[in-house]
Amino acid sequence: MRALHKIYLASWLAVAGVSAPAADLTLEGHRLIVSGPLDGSMVQVFLDLVRSANVRTVVFEDSLGGSAEVASQYAAAIRETGVNTEVVGQCHAACAYAFLAGKAHQFGEGDQVNALLIPVGTRPQPSELASRWRGDAAQKTLAEFIMPADPAREGDLAREMDAPLKEKWRPEHGVLFLARPTLFGRVYNTYYCDGTQGRDFTRCELLADADPRKLGVIVD
Description:
This protein has helices spanning 2-16, 43-50, 68-81, 94-100, 126-129, 136-143, 154-160, and strands at 24-28, 31-35, 57-64, 84-92, 105-107, 114-118, 173-182, 185-194, 205-206. The protein has 220 residues and is of the alpha/beta class. It has one domain (2-206): 2-enoyl-CoA Hydratase, Chain A, domain 1, CATH 3.90.226. Strand 2 (31-35), helix 2 (43-50) and strand 3 (57-64) form a beta-alpha-beta unit.
């Protein structure tokens, strides 16, 4: 329960607009630890480190969102170098898309609750769950949140391209992949959160037959 409370508190801070620390990078051997939001403050440092050939795994630790534009930069570098990714604690929105770009992406071990929140426009159908977050499909999903999908707005998009891209995802809205430790091993579940639950993720809808390992969200 204490670990779940951490999810609720951190999410509340993000929704309430309480100041959060900028991204922080720590290199531990061949593991690059990324914590805090992907806000653009450490993009160039991240790119230099991940392209140095010393990094084999990028670990996202308690990263509650950030910019969609920055997420695409992180993801491109991760795909380009073929490094693995890992989540320890919370990884929401922008962080989730960068995480999915890893050659192998997995949840970290330990006694913490690991949670991956991927924003979606609408509740995914069962047929979508099996393919939506595999390979290029994950990046196409990201594109839905950073540019108009309506061709009729092409002119508007052209005029906006000189300005920073705007995220369209809503706080606490998306699919939540959760792994929590128990006395009998880790339990994996998937939920749909429509955003009305606020910081109480226990009110999200449990999705049947949606183990994140079977869906390709966790790939060892």
